[in-house]
Amino acid sequence: MSETFVLHASVAFGDVDRDNVLTLQGVFKLLQEAAIAHANQYDTGTDAMVARGESWVLKRMAVAIDRYPRYAEPLRVETWSTGIRGSIGNRDFRVYGGDGGTVIRGSSLWIYISVRAKSVVRVPADVAARFPSGAGAPFCPNLQDLAFDEPASSAAETLPVSLRYSDVDANDHVNNTAYFDLLQTALSRLGRPARPRGVRVKYGRGIPGDTAGVEVRVAPAGAGGSSFSIASGDETFAQGWCG
Which of 51, 156, 206, 217 lies 20 to 30 Å (CA to CA) from residue 189? Predict the structure, then answer.
């Protein structure tokens, strides 16, 4: 099998916004689908959750969006592993639009867990040994070392957002891609640019499936962007930067 997995897709009508361009959540759904399909080839994706009660959990991500693709535009999503060490897996992405140019670039960090024990475990040695690492340079090589600050409380605006049935996935928590629908909703309603060209996020504990709603907190940050967090009370589920 090739070191680089390729997913051919097109922008679905259900994933575009009022201007017929891909939503922020739609961007991350594309990346998630490619990652899962590639991991399933090596028995470490959704198949592993069924067979061994194990799964990858996304912990960090950095993405640059050069252009938001339009409805029905054909896309080529490429992804590859940039290394598995212990319980940590790193993965990169490139998405090419209908004109052949790069539209999305990204790096991600995942941890391998036992769903039954709800604890971090090492990737099985035989799986790690046969999972190929691609030669492509990572978009964000220092992702693991990036600092993520919560929005300063004195400058933050807060928007309560309800959660929906469709936000919860098979792990019984809010799917990581739904966080970006929450973020884009808050950016729009708070009068901030709703289509950021860069997003960096660190996930904390997953949002339980029975959670009714969360608060999205947004504050001005460096490089002309915004820091954000997704929280409920004193519990922060994710925090990051967009701009």
Answer: 206
pTM of the predicted model as reported, rounded to 2 decimal places: 0.94
| 3 state SS for the chain | CCCCEEEEEECCHHHECCCCEECHHHHHHHHHHHHHHHHHCCCCCHHHHHHHCEEEEEEEEEEEECCCCECCCEEEEEEEEEEEECCEEEEEEEEECCCCCEEEEEEEEEEEEECCCCEECCCCHHHHHHCCECCCCCCCCCHHHCCCCCCCCCCCEEEEEECCHHHECCCCEECCCHHHHHHHHHHHHCCCCCCCCEEEEEECCCCECCCCEEEEEEEECHHHCEEEEEEECCEEEEEEEEC
Of 157, 117, 140, 154, whose CA–CA distance to 202 is shortest?
Answer: 140
